[in-house]
């Protein structure tokens, strides 16, 4: 039995969730520590921790989250937080081998000759000899060089001349170096993943993509599962992240009701003594996926740690009714690449600036 599995059992025995104030009618539910098995055979926790934004707080929050029991940390080169995450991991005192740490390659480093150097940069900043997962952040390739968002004089994104298949093959080669334990993708369409499978010898271990009650992507999720590709839900709380209301490529739909205010989720939460946020995370976990909520607020991290509990089928069905097909993360116009071309929720994309 892996140390992860052992810890999972210990955690499920030792942790019982408390009822929230004013919810005395709710039942007591056991908090689990679910993990999933990737197509590499490695385990990935179902509940993890996102690190996009608030870079000045990430060292402290990553450290505290690990000490409280989080074991999956998601970061990316483009978040500019790898150094803080690395320090947080060290500060936590949790052995590296007990942590599932993933990062993402950014689009200006997609030339096959740049991939290993880019990963070395990430490993140096993360202060670790390996990552458990390396993701290609988006399928679009930007002009090779140090500019993360290379643009022409009119502000239009400059693309590179290699393809995501070339990048993927360079990522495949990294597995043999031991610097990367598994490789996967993020923000790919179905046809882009089909191309990778057809033209390479590695099926992605993970697809990290936007999934929440407002964008459930049921068909695509079924298809990914049939291919043995594990889904990690980013922005698992939908438009809770203000970024989606403020970014230049925000859509009208980003202003819809936040999940925290959603009456159906509140009602379900009452039954279990849980918050709407916990219900949303547990829905993702009970669907067989991993979730990586971001928070730099202690009580929220505590709440998120208590979000792995069983939701009854009738409540899963009620969450299923919230599928508005609302995609909040769509920089297609900005990146000059039609992202998610065969997927749901791509209407209403506007041109704008991400950063
Ligand atoms: N692959 C990609 O392209 C991609 C894209 C987006 C995100 N991601 C990854 O996914 C992670 C999560 O996504 P996200 O940051 O966009 O959004 P999210 O985790 O869905 O939502 C984050 C927002 O929810 C708040 N929050 C968290 N827990 C809460 C709780 N228990 N109660 C009330 N509010 C709570 C946070 O508050 P505070 O701000 O106060 O902490 C923050 O404002 C990122 O950090 C990143 O690692 C990947």
UniProtKB/TrEMBL annotation:
The UniProt record lists the keyword NADP: yes
All copies of domain NADP-dependent oxidoreductase, residue ranges: 52-322
Record's keyword annotation contains Oxidoreductase: yes
Protein name as annotated: D-xylose reductase [NAD(P)H]
Site (Lowers pKa of active site Tyr): 104
Function summary: Catalyzes the initial reaction in the xylose utilization pathway by reducing D-xylose into xylitol. Xylose is a major component of hemicelluloses such as xylan. Most fungi utilize D-xylose via three enzymatic reactions, xylose reductase (XR), xylitol dehydrogenase (XDH), and xylulokinase, to form xylulose 5-phosphate, which enters pentose phosphate pathway.
InterPro entries: AKR, Aldo/ket_reductase_CS, NAD(P)_OxRdtase_dom_sf, NADP_OxRdtase_dom
UniProt xrefs under Pfam families: Aldo_ket_red
Catalytic residue list: 79
Annotated PANTHER family: 2,5-DIKETO-D-GLUCONIC ACID REDUCTASE, NADP-DEPENDENT OXIDOREDUCTASE DOMAIN-CONTAINING PROTEIN
Record keywords, A-Z: NADP, Oxidoreductase
EC number: 1.1.1.307
Sequence positions that bind substrate: 137
Catalytic activity: xylitol + NAD(+) = D-xylose + NADH + H(+); xylitol + NADP(+) = D-xylose + NADPH + H(+)
GO molecular function list: oxidoreductase activity, acting on the CH-OH group of donors, NAD or NADP as acceptor
Family affiliation: Belongs to the aldo/keto reductase family.
């Amino acid at each position: 039995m892996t140390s992860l599995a052992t810890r999972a059992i210990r955690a499920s025995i030792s942790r019982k969730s408390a009822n929230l104030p004013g919810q005395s009618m709710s039942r007591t539910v056991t908090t689990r520590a679910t993990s999933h098995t990737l197509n590499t055979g490695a385990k990935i926790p179902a509940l993890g921790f996102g690190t996009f934004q608030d870079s000045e707080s990430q060292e402290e929050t990553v450290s505290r989250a690990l000490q409280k029991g989080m074991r999956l940390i998601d970061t990316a080169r483009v978040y500019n937080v790898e150094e803080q995450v690395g320090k947080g991991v060290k500060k936590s005192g949790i052995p590296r081998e007990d942590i599932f740490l993933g990062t993402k390659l950014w689009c200006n480093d997609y030339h096959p000759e740049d991939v290993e150097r880019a990963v070395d940069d990430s490993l140096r900043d993360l202060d670790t000899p390996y990552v458990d997962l390396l993701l290609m952040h988006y399928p679009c390739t930007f002009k090779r060089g140090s500019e993360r968002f290379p643009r022409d004089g009119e502000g239009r994104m400059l693309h590179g001349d290699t393809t995501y298949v070339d990048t993927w093959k360079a990522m495949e080669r990294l597995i043999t170096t031991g610097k990367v334990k598994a490789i996967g993708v993020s923000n790919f369409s179905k046809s882009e993943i089909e191309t990778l499978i057809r033209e390479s010898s590695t099926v992605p271990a993970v697809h990290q993509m936007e999934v929440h009650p407002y964008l459930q992507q049921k068909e695509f999720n079924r298809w990914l599962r049939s291919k043995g590709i594990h889904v990690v839900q980013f922005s698992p709380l939908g438009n809770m992240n203000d970024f989606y209301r403020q970014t230049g490529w925000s859509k009208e739909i980003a202003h819809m009701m936040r999940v925290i205010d959603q009456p159906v989720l509140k009602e379900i939460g009452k039954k279990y003594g849980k918050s709407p946020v916990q219900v949303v995370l547990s829905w993702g976990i009970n669907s067989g996926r991993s979730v990586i909520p971001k928070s730099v607020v202690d009580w929220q991290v505590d709440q998120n740690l208590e979000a792995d509990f069983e939701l009854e089928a009738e409540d899963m069905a009620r969450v299923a009714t919230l599928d508005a097909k609302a995609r909040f993360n769509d920089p297609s116009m900005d990146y000059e690449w039609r992202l998610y071309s065969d997927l749901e929720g791509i209407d209403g994309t506007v041109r704008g600036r991400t950063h």
